[in-house]
Design goal:
By secondary structure, this protein is mainly α. The chain has two helices and no strands.
Length: about 70
């Protein structure tokens, strides 16, 4: 686990890098991040659907006792 000091350095480095970008570069970076986030949300939705389908399949199976 990173220390608070290490985290602060990472934040400072990120802000310095991001702050050095032009507005156009920032807009493009934001588009890329938004697209990645949208893909992640879509994947989560797909996994939730698969989970619900698996639960439905299990609930239809006869219960077996050991």
């Amino acid at each position: 686990m990173e220390s608070n000091e290490q985290q602060q350095l990472l934040v400072s480095d990120y802000k310095a890098h991001y702050g050095a970008l032009t507005d156009e570069q920032k807009a493009e970076a934001n588009k890329v991040h938004d697209a990645q986030f949208a893909k992640t949300l879509l994947k989560i939705d797909e996994m939730e659907v698969a989970l619900q389908e698996a639960k439905a399949m299990l609930s239809r199976q006869p219960q077996q006792t050991a």
